[in-house]
Amino acid sequence: MRISLSVAALALCLSGGAGVAQERVKIGVLSDMGGVYADITGPGSVAAARLAVEDFGGKVLGQPIELVTADHQAKPDVGLAVAREWLDTQGVSAIVDVPVSSIGLGIQALTKEKQRVFLNTAGASSDFTGKACSPYATQWAMDTYTMASSAGRALVKAGGTKWFFITADYAFGHALERDASAAVKEAGGSVAGSAKHPLNNQDFASHLLQAQSSGANVVGLANGTGDTVRSINQAREFGLTAAGTKIAALVLFISDVHALGLPAAQGTVVTESFYWDRTDSTRAWGKRFMERTNGRAPGMYHAGLYSAVTHYLKAVEKAGTTDADKVSAAMREMPIKDALISNGHIRADGKVMQDYFLLEVKKPAESKGPWDYYKVLATVPAEDVSKPLSRSECPTAKVPG
After folding, report:
1. CATH topology (fold) of 145-272+356-385
2. Are 116 and 93 in contact (CB under 8 A)?
3. Domain ranges of the chain
4. What is the pLDDT of residues 175-198, one digit of tens each?
5. 82-129, pLDDT tens digit by residue?
6. Which residues, 6+ apart, have CB-to-CB distance to 311 below 8 Å?
7. Strands 59-60 and 63-64
8. What CA–CA distance (Å, rounded) separates 286 from 210?
9. Quick one: which of 189, 194, 217, 227 could link to 165 by a disulfide (CB 3.0–4.6 Å)?
10. Angle (CA) 252 253 258, round 5°
11. pTM of the model
12. Is 294 helix (H, G, I), strand (E, B) or coil?
């Protein structure tokens, strides 16, 4: 009898030890570390993740929280290979960041198959919470529907009724043009045409000439980062703005304003989910971030990643496990409240509902120091610029009626 009890006790200890080992949280930050998206994600995303882990105390479920990082090089095959390695052999329980929607959509499908959590903080296609939705995935960034509807409706109302799009030729750009076109038409405007370009394009001459010849009074830039900056600069060189054509940058990050400079960017109105110099708490966090990034201010993707990792760790703690089903349920049940998001929640389709901010780029004389680039014009509730859940293509998030 003593032998049997000892064997049973030993087996219980071993199974308990194995259970503890399995509960260790390992988060993978998959980003673009040196390419076109490095300024808005990349090393800054790693810094934001480390801040979140440190602020949580470095441990959860009695185990140290581990971070691993990798560069997907803006290549879907590289990103998927890294993610599969993490999930299959390294015990990663959640993947976060992943700029470039085409890569993110692949990661979302993979994590759904593997039943792991995906914290999408940098992929903007509205398909993440639409036809490609997953019970294990959440979208923290502004999506293309929000970006498009906020700018499209406001500009049509102001008289910009005929649009021409210059569009990045990949999933993000296509989704942004699609959603902006719908918003423009719903508001009573029309679309004269569009011209596609590859990622990291250098010469927009032919695209701008097509826009000029179309007779459009608004050129919608359905692209991002360096492509947006070059589009704006070359549009000014071509005289489009001097001729009265409105350049609508549907996505413009604070790093883009920094690259353009206030003399060129002043007066531009953008919508973002975060501005580091908005409140005392965002300012304090922003300064901590800048201490680790050679003085570069955080953008909305960095802030979203910090909030996502923090909320995920809270959910793991509440669920008492890293099991994706239980953690995902806890994430959706809990309100999102931290130093950067004060009144957020996760909708049934995985979309993070939070306030957005209508911002105007300051004139050079209005800026009081480095990265003091915006003034807040208004707070925009998520419900005002989000696709209604009743119109969602997510098969598991339909609402009655």
Report:
1. Rossmann fold (3.40.50)
2. yes
3. 24-142+279-351, 145-272+356-385
4. 899 989 998 999 999 999 999 999
5. 999 999 999 999 999 999 999 999 999 999 999 999 999 999 988 999
6. 331, 334, 336, 338
7. antiparallel
8. 41
9. 194
10. 110
11. 0.86
12. coil
Sheet bearing 190-197, strands edge to edge: 190-197, 162-168, 218-222, 246-249
Query: In whole angstroms, what is the distance from residue 126 CA to residue 183 CA?
Result: 14
Rounded-to-integer distance, Cα 366 and Cα 209, Å: 34
Quote the tokens at residue 287.
């300064």
Measured in residues, the chain has a length of: 401
CATH topology for 24-142+279-351? Answer: Rossmann fold (3.40.50)
Contact 39, 255 (CB under 8 A): yes
Model confidence pLDDT, tens digit, residues 275-315: 999 999 999 999 999 999 999 999 999 999 999 999 999 99
Average pLDDT, the chain: 90
State the pLDDT confidence band at 399, using cuts at 50, 70 and 90.
low
Domains 24-142+279-351 and 145-272+356-385 share a fold: yes
